[in-house]
Amino acid sequence: MAYKRIFAIVMDSVGIGEAPDAADFDDVGADTLGHVGEFYAGDLALPNLGKLGLSNIRPGKPIQGVPVADQAIGAFGKMREVSAGKDSMDGHWEMMGLPVRKPLSTFPNGFPEEIIKKLEDFSGRHVIVNKPYSGTDVIHDYGEQQMKTGELIVYTSGDSVLQIAAHEDVISVKELYKICEYARSLVNGPEWTIGRIIARPYVGPDKDHFTRTANRHDFSLEPIGETDMDRLKAAGLDVIGVGKINDIFSGHGITKGYHNESNMDGMDHVDEVMASDFHGFCFTNLVDFDAMYGHRRNPKGFGQALMDFDQRLTKVLANLKDDDLLMITADHGNDPGYRGTDHTREFVPLLAYSPSMKHANQSLGIRPTFADMGATVLENFGVQGNSEGTSFLSEVSNGETVK
Fold first, then answer.
1. How many domains does the chain have?
2. Burial class (CB in 10 A: 0-12, 13-18, 19+), 174
3. Fewest beta carbons within 10 Å, which of 66, 266, 271, 378?
4. What is the C-alpha to C-alpha distance for residues 171 and 154, in angstroms, rounded to an integer?
5. pLDDT-derived band of residue 402, with 50, 70 and 90 as boundaries?
6. Taking the model in full, what pTM does it have?
């Protein structure tokens, strides 16, 4: 077969300009990478992403600080989302051949009383807030009250999410997870179908020092159909999930999983997996871009996280074997230079590289769906898909025959 191992790294929320349907999401003008580059005014140093072809994706409007490579070492393009939402679950599911074409439930005015009452009865705790809110702002504004009363901070965003925040010293992580598991059972349809229930534990002595912890846990909707990861696993291949991949797919189609404490911890896991002998697909999500900087509208932190990731790519690129393929992409945008605090509907970058790639400096163009990535992985391993997406394996091939 073409490659023995494929590594896909999702830079969570690193979009590359408004999608054609951005107006439908009130996201016209969103441009995550573009606005981060503008903030740094040419000082955004991303040499590895640059030589892979990041600015070659849109040569007429390169990312400031990231020159267009005369000869990119890999293949480059961008992907458009067809799913009805712009949440992480929608994006990752679509990458794995399961687009979410029916909109999930959102709650711009807060959750119905029926849901709140059931949460209160189950937990024995009163619910406060119950409206769209920034995750960091909500613990700043209500965290001290929650510590005194033991209430549950319940909030949402523009996505299909129900989030519950609680101080770890007041409500244990174990109890918070139990409450979130119950909340998950309430919103699996048909009346309400929510993509993710998110446990948001935090610590700290007061509102000026509260921080959310790595004990966040996503209780995702069970995949509504078979994914490309299920197909790979059924074919006897290794499927390794790094970061919140396990949460997003509710453990389906994964043979081994790693929990990330941070982007850098996630890259440590990538290095560990690269050093191991496995045959199959490693799917990684790095969430700090989104959770730490995108939602907080912090372009400085976002850019620093990109530069830190780029530095880690030095080792990854050096350790890639001839029968390895690396793909780097994103699941949506979260423009720190844009209004609001929600995800933004954008194209996502697509970079692919192998030391043995037959044709370098290759444009993959505009892919019409994220599912093209999963279709490529399946074709590489000779696994039958469901006709979602079109493989670009021939454009990133090392010339070996798929068996």
1. 2
2. exposed
3. 271
4. 14
5. low
6. 0.92
Paired strand residues for 249: none
- 150 with 69, same domain: the answer is no
Annotation-wise, does 259 bind a ligand? Answer: no
Q: pLDDT tens digits, residue range 208-260?
A: 999 999 999 999 999 999 999 999 999 999 999 999 999 999 999 999 999 99
Count CB atoms within 10 A of the CB of residue 188. 12
70 is in an annotated binding site: no
List the structure tokens of 398: 């090392």
290 annotated as a binding-site residue: yes
The answer to whether residue 401 sits within a structural domain is no
Q: Is 332 assigned to a binding site?
A: yes
At 164-182, the pLDDT tens digits run 999 999 999 999 999 999 9
Write out the DSSP string of 321-356. Answer: -TTEEEEEE-SSB--TTSSSSS-B-B-EEEEEE-TT
Contact 266, 245 (CB under 8 A): no
Among the listed residues 274, 269, 272, 295, the one whose alpha carbon sits nearest the alpha carbon of residue 284 = 269
- Same domain? For 300 and 175 the reply is no
